[in-house]
Design goal:
Blueprint (H helix, E strand, L loop, with lengths): L3 H17 L14 H7 L4 H4 L16 H4 L6 E5 L5 H10 L4 E6 L2 H14 L4 E5 L12 E7 L8 H11 E14 L5 H5 L1 H5 L6 E2 H10 L3 E8 H11 L10 E9 L15
Parallel strand pairs: 1-2, 1-4, 2-3, 4-5, 5-6
Antiparallel strand pairs: 5-8, 7-8
Helix pairs in contact: 1-6
Amino acid sequence: MLAPNDVKQIVRERYAEVAEGTATCGSLCGCTPHAEELALAFGYPDEELQTLPGGTNLGLSCGNPQVLAELRPGQWVLDLGSGAGFDALLAARKVGPGGRVVGVDMTDAMLQRARENAARAGLDNVEFRKGDIESLPVEEGQFDVALSNCVLNLCPDKDAALREIHRVLKPGGKLAISDMAWTTEPAESVRRDLNAIVGCIGGALVLDDYLRRLERAGFSDLRVERHPEKATLMVELSGSTMLPGIENLLSVNLLAFKPSHGQRNQSGNALS
């Protein structure tokens, strides 16, 4: 089994290659010629996608967390694993000049590309910081919303990451996640496959386990959207159809709240 630091280094190297345009395509997440097709399938409006500078959408999404986030003007938003700035730049336009978006990524090449894209888009209410999700470079209780798009599956220590996200949200703040999840535990060979790990499959949690970890980190009122058809589309476009158990893979949208002061920690019903 790979050590956590080894996983991070492999992920960092692969996503640097994606940012630089030198990656060899074929894994599920990233380096796909179908980036716009996927974004539209996930519900990103075409008119919003047209506001992004070329090269911002690298096909690294596995859903659309902004559907559940319902961003509003004036909010402070944290984009986890911000990549080339795809969700961060879209969010910056929604929160407007009275709001703020901070993107965090551990890959220098991605950070450089995101900053260049923000400058090309003419947005000055967004910034990008280097850091790990397990140890976020932001202050406690600072954000109204945290966005995570196909990133938490890549974190070796998911519990630490969820605790950190809970720390930096304001009371009553929300975490909107799009991610891959399994309906049942996959084969050990998938868990050990480097391409599956980097491709957002090998490190994906079983959905029930995902929800338990969110609760354990202190989140409440959990809401779930299951999208097996979108997982199927991603698998077909990536050519990953031969992995064992791939039919048990889901694309999921999750919404979770940091309880307000005095609010009990309880889970809600699934959305679908």
